Amino acid sequence: MPVDILVGTQWGDEGKGKLIDVLTRDVDMVVRFQGGNNAGHTVEIGDKRYVLHLVPSGIFRPEVTCVIGNGLVVDPVALDEELRGIEEKGFSTDNVQLSNRAQMIFIYHRVADSLNESGATKKIGTTGRGIGPAYMDKMRRTGIRAIDLKFPEKLAEQFRTECARYNKIFAEAGIQQLDVEAELTKVLEAAKRLAPMVCDTVYSVNRAVKEGKNVLFEGAQGALLDIDHGTYPFVTSSNTTSGGACTGGGVPPQSIRDVWGVIKAYTTRVGEGPFPTELFDATGEKLRQIGREFGATTGRPRRCGWFDAVASRYACMVNGINKLAVTKLDCLDDLDEIAICVAYKVNGVLTTEFPASVAELEAAEPVYEYLPGWKCSTSEARKAADLPENARKYLARMAELVDSEIAIISVGPRRDQTFAADAE
Ligand code: IMP
């Protein structure tokens, strides 16, 4: 009955795609449970690099069933394109299931997303994929669900109604009206292809659980972008933390065994919002270049900084993480010394708790502990014993500070550069 969840413990881009690709060796089903094509999961197999946005990372293993769960917001045109791209690379997509309860993103959500951003006094720096507006429609109960891909006439009627509503908003804002019929043609074209994969995934996932299959829930983004637990309002619009797997995948909490947390050996963030350990100096730039820290979805340069144990400990607590996977340790190989943020000083008061308020996070001065670097390459390591002593000490301190155990270490993008922490 093992059901595991894998989530990001920072602001996304922790390397979840790579980890899921490794974990799916023993998995029968991978389930995405929140978000949409704002995610960009990079998987490297041999010399090839694949970026997935909506399709679960198990897609490169034909025996794995890949489920796009009810908690997602799915752009049907983007999903159709992504599936075509995967097939062109020689992989089958017959193993993909799309939840009939998933909400859909349409052109008007993307336009509304950029409209919100352009007029905002506090820009979020969204991916522009229409995520927030689609979740807004879900909550206001005017969303259109994937089930309707099977009923083109009903879909067309709902689409036209929603377009008319949005066109009024766009007219008031003085922006271009939607070409409703042209957009509808694209949606109906995508619907033809997607309709056969639409099913009740709540049943298929629960059947798999009951049959004792290995099911992995794949989180997107990271804990600090969670709509409740993240740095609100600079967050995404879904629950990125482990609780989201139950609601967004339709499984009960008792079915969960392990919660894996992917944690980068340093911290990055894309978009706006507080980031207490951000580096604006040459070290930050070095991390960006060495770590190839450019968004997989938008190509934006990621903001880089030191490992923040205050934020990550909060993330581990909220998620109930019992297994950590540390990624990109090799990106620190060249540093003389490495800082870890162990506390914040907020308006003169020392705290080890992650503040809820953006104002406090913006005022937070990181309190650093400095560890010596190891100044040699770790990318050839295949077990913890191969790592230099200072690297092992750094990992041990990370684990101690976030109060969780390291189970996997990754020292490079390839499959063979990710190994179990207890590998002999
Ligand atoms: P949205 O999800 O497009 O609404 O964007 C909201 C915030 O989440 C922005 O700061 C984005 O940069 C950030 N975000 C969304 N998806 C990802 C991701 O996959 N990795 C990192 N940041 C993300």
Descriptive overview:
The protein is an alpha/beta fold. It has 12 helices and 20 strands. It has helices at 16-23, 76-88, 107-119, 131-139, 152-172, 180-194, 201-210, 243-249, 282-290, 309-319, 358-363, 389-402, and strands spanning 3-8, 29-32, 41-45, 48-52, 65-68, 73-74, 96-99, 103-104, 198-199, 215-218, 256-264, 267-269, 303-305, 307-308, 323-327, 337-346, 349-351, 365-372, 406-410, 418-420. It has a 10-stranded mixed sheet, with helices on both faces. Strands 14, 16, 17 and 18 form a 4-stranded mixed sheet that branches. A two-stranded antiparallel ribbon has the order 3-4. Strand 19 and strand 20 (418-420) form a beta hairpin.
Summary?
By secondary structure, the protein is of the alpha/beta class. The protein contains 12 helices and 20 strands. Helices cover 32% and strands 21% of the residues.
Shape, please? globular
pLDDT < 50 stretches: none
How many helices in DSSP terms? 12
The kinds of small molecule bound in this structure are: inosinic acid
Secondary structure category = alpha/beta
Please state how the strands of the largest beta sheet are arranged side by side: 9-7-5-2-10-1-11-15-19-20
Largest sheet: 10 strands, mixed
* Beta-strand fraction estimate: 15-25%
